[in-house]
Design a protein that fits this description.
InterPro entries: PH_bac
Distance between the termini: 71 Å
Pfam families: bPH_11
Domain PH: 43-165
Organism: Mycolicibacillus koreensis
Protein name: Transporter
CATH topology of the largest domain: PH-domain like
Shape: elongated
Strand content: 25-35%
């Protein structure tokens, strides 16, 4: 390789590195700005109770897809750790629903704040070919309605979860 070609390649690599760094910084700034805008809407999540009754809906293992502001299924909630997709287990109790997430705080959805449970084909960037996402619509203490998405490894129990909410 001759010297002008080497210099041109190094300059191109440097420009490409600067552009990629700028794009990543812009995306991170956008994520932080969205979290700041949503902080007042979301507020504090309901506390996890010390004790709960017997299990009323079977535990499901799968992936916590995320939370969205209702009814906009593409408007991801990014406050705290609600925006991160992770492995999770959901369990239904008479008092509410527990979403235990790997590497994140658990989410407690009190029964009195539960609005509906349904299946969806897609939610916050996760699309399925069939109704593969269990969407739980509930009201936060601030009054904001959100949808919490969960994709189970085995979707056979979805009808029982939907029936449980009614």
């Amino acid at each position: 390789m001759n010297t002008p070609t080497l210099v041109g390649s190094l300059i191109f690599a440097l420009v490409l590195l600067i552009v990629v760094s700028w794009l990543i910084q812009s995306m991170m700034r956008g994520w932080r700005n969205r979290a700041a805008r949503q902080a007042e809407l979301v507020g504090a999540l309901p506390p996890v109770p010390d004790t709960v009754g017997a299990v009323s809906a079977p535990s499901l293992r799968g992936v916590y897809v995320g939370c969205t502001l209702s009814p906009r299924w593409h408007d991801r909630v990014v406050v705290g750790d609600l925006g991160y997709r992770t492995r999770a287990v959901i369990t239904g109790y008479p008092e509410g629903i527990m979403v235990q997430r790997s590497g994140a705080r658990p989410i407690w959805i009190p029964r009195e704040q539960l609005i509906a449970i349904r299946t969806e084909r897609g939610m916050v960037g996760k699309a399925m070919s069939h109704d593969g996402i269990l969407a739980i619509r509930w009201r936060l203490p601030t009054g904001t309605e959100i949808d919490t998405g969960f994709r189970a490894d085995n979707r056979d129990s979805y009808p029982q979860w939907i029936e449980e909410a009614q």
